[in-house]
Amino acid sequence: MKQSLTFIPTMREVPADADIKSHQLLLRAGFIRQTASGVYSYLPLAQKVLTKIQQIVREEMNKAGAAELLMPALQQAELWQESGRWYSYGPELMRLRDRHDREFALGATHEEVITSIVRDEIKSYKRLPLSLYQIQSKFRDEKRPRFGLLRGREFIMKDAYSFHSSFESLDQVYEKMFTAYSNIFSRCKLNYRAVIADSGAMGGKDTHEFMVLSDVGEDTIAYSDSSNYAANIEMAPVHMTYEKPTGSAEDLEKVDTPEMKSIDEVCHFLSVDKKNCLKSLLFKVDEKFVLILVRGDHEVNDIKVKNLFEADIVELASADETKQITGVIPGYVGPVNLPESVEIVADHAVLAIANGVCGANEEHTHYKGVNLDRDANISQFADLRFIQEGDPSPDGTGTIQFARGIEVGHVFKLGTRYSEAMNASFLDENGRSQPLIMGCYGIGVSRTLSAVVEQYNDENGIVWPADLAPYDVHIIPINMKQDAQRNLGEELYAEFLDAGLDPLIDDRQERAGVKFADSDLIGIPVRITVGKRADEGIVEVKVRTTRETQECDRSEVLSVIKNILNK
């Protein structure tokens, strides 16, 4: 492609509203432009990279035995009402009405649509398993779009769905998809981890996220420093044993703690360690109020609370709800003398607290000398806290460390969550009707593009891995008005095309400094500079990753380029 004929609107300055490196570079290098908050146009360079990522995805999905289709982005509300998600998905689902006042949603995901298609066509176990996928734009009305392509309201996604007659079959395809995803992200040259995750609004159990390691990641990964164990921090179990300290139990004593609501304030005021304080938080679990107790230096993991109660919705009670139920504002709530209607559940670490401190359910007041086996009615103990750095790894090898990650892929075992709700069934070997068993597998294609840029850049611009770069080689005749430079540049351009390479030639009437700056910014793997020695047939070859340069005779250039690109 001749650079004068394509559209690469580079920018010298860093956009003020771009907070992370990938967002800055994709804007500056002319890959994307924002059309609305969280909505971007993919310009020619980005489109070429997206096409390469999509090709990798297609190759690996086809190898895993999945067939490609394309479903509508506009989805009937009735399908979402069948699954129950029309009411539970939340404000992220973009809803609209047509001229006949019928309700629709813009596809945030396609479980309902694919289930409706398959239930109408698949009636026998003989046609199972079946795996289908698509690559399509998705829509989610994010409350606060940010970080460019990493958190948008419209984005490109590959979503796949598998249908089975048995859970053994689901397990087999899940493993194939897991392998396919590992291959995809490895071929994209990403430094990633597959981590145990929560299924969230998707439903189902047994799920992994594929996380690209990055300091700007919105998720925290808990991983072992001595094994391959990795999990989203929400899902990492805590495997520790706790023993109650020996010694006599003190009398329960009520003490004044004026304006002291936080754990830090109370511990400082009473000169006690946070490990001997009880943090008491009132949660609304579906329609039931539950008091969760954790140690003062720990944090409640609401996902673990949700899983313990097998609840649909778990949220921290509001200040008004807390006062209505307990008679006191948050900060002074405790398990002693709490109304019997409120169930009390405690984290295992609370077992080690003796003669502790907790809220007294009176404003500006706390209890000292608290011993829960005597002073409160705990219904059960469970793992309810977030794992911390330094805790033992759940797999028994090493200790836990934290890293930040960008989620680029997610695989789920949905089971019969959607098929039962939507009456999608098949006849088994005995002629009995059974609900279809499902799996679901998603990749953020546009997010993957951004994640690659997060990991591959330097102070001058993007440094694309060769297999994803928008072009293979960037030819830069320094002065297009100079016949020898122009002619040699065009000869190399034609030769590269004939050899099956994808070259970009900068045929613009621009200064050399502008051309070099744009080339570094765009990040094409190899740059050919055609300069003063063009009349001798000598050019300079520069590798973008290493910045190494060498002079080459025109007859050697093609073999040198192929060697660099491994083509």
TrEMBL record:
One of its GO terms (biological process) is prolyl-tRNA aminoacylation. CDD domains: ProRS-INS (cd04334), ProRS_anticodon_short (cd00861), ProRS_core_prok (cd00779). It is an enzyme of class 6 (ligase). Gene3D superfamilies: Anticodon-binding domain, Bira Bifunctional Protein, Domain 2, YbaK/aminoacyl-tRNA synthetase-associated domain. Residues 33-465 form the Aminoacyl-transfer RNA synthetases class-II family profile domain. One of its GO terms (molecular function) is catalytic activity, acting on a protein. It holds the Pfam family HGTP_anticodon. GO terms for cellular component: cytosol. Its EC number is 6.1.1.15. It is found in: Cytoplasm. Homodimer. PANTHER family: MITOCHONDRIAL RIBOSOME PROTEIN L39/PROLYL-TRNA LIGASE FAMILY MEMBER (PTHR42753), PROLINE--TRNA LIGASE (PTHR42753:SF2). This is Proline--tRNA ligase.
